[in-house]
Amino acid sequence: METKTPDIELRSTLTCPLCGHAETETMPTDACQWFYDCKGCAAVLKPKPGDCCVYCSYGTVPCPPIQLGDGCCS
Ligand SMILES: [Zn+2]
How far is the CA of 46 from the centre of ligand 1 (A)? Predict the structure, then answer.
């Protein structure tokens, strides 16, 4: 028997728009991350207008609720 697990990618690489530093992070599945401290330049990244979290704005992979097809925090 195979448990049906949605195919979600939890690791996303965030790229800082200010300094270009990229860092791979594991996303929380039950919450949206609004703020992210860049490890390159220490800037605090926030989502772009219309995006729900920093992963949707700057990550290679959008956050888990988006991957599942839900709007997350709207
Ligand atoms: Zn940066």
Answer: 12
